Write the structure tokens for this entry.
Amino acid sequence: MAAAGIAAVVYAGACAYLWKEQRQLIFWPQAVVVRTPADVGMEFREVSIPVGERSTLYAWWLPADSLQTAAAVLLYLRGNDGNLGQEVDRLQALHRHGLPILAIDYRGYGRSSGPPPSEAQIYEDAIAAWDYLVRTQGVAPGRIVIYGHSLGGAVATELALRRGPACGVVLEGTFTSMSEMGRLEYPWIPVDWLLHERFDTLNKIGRLDLPMVFVHGMADREVPPAMTERLYRAAHRDKQLVMVKGAGHEQAMPMAGEPMVKAMANLARACGR
């Protein structure tokens, strides 16, 4: 009985720790931005986007290579760790599709000011970036493609429900929900009872009436590829699935090749209508 009592106390303590520290377990921001697009020869401009009462988002604007007005503009929403400096190579690969890109760091990440991140706050940051494109840059909502990688895919889905209608949404390496990810990591913990940072993309995806592209690396060891397949099945209307052999969590889009080129071209054409 003593051993059982000790085990119960330890278990309760573990549950309390996960409940209290879940934001620190989900969000891994870094302050120092060590790389910029200039390091790989890309033209870019630093942008400051106001959000909240006293905070700003640090962002990069990567113009299109062509002098002609692009049919679409990409709003790039990143994952949960590091900062924009870690996205340089991915942004370079994405930029090869010929579209201008606005990429942001959420509050608490990199050079963005503000409090530590949370689910609600990151949604607000994405809305601020959208409003900057529409209200400040004069981009029509129907020309915006929302691109989300990993946790950014959950943010992209929420943004598409709150603003728009956008031209389309691209989800790369996105999980179904944070609770399902939590159950994979902590199968012995009642995650659903403890979690308040939920990022429940699976329950939202069917409410979107937009063209969608789903991309996932089949060698992804962080987010199971089956999660993207479930998101794809739950989505409506025009949708495309690109499963990339041999690609890990960070490599699906850069390694996707011709299927990704076609998927992005189809979206761009839809934006141009």
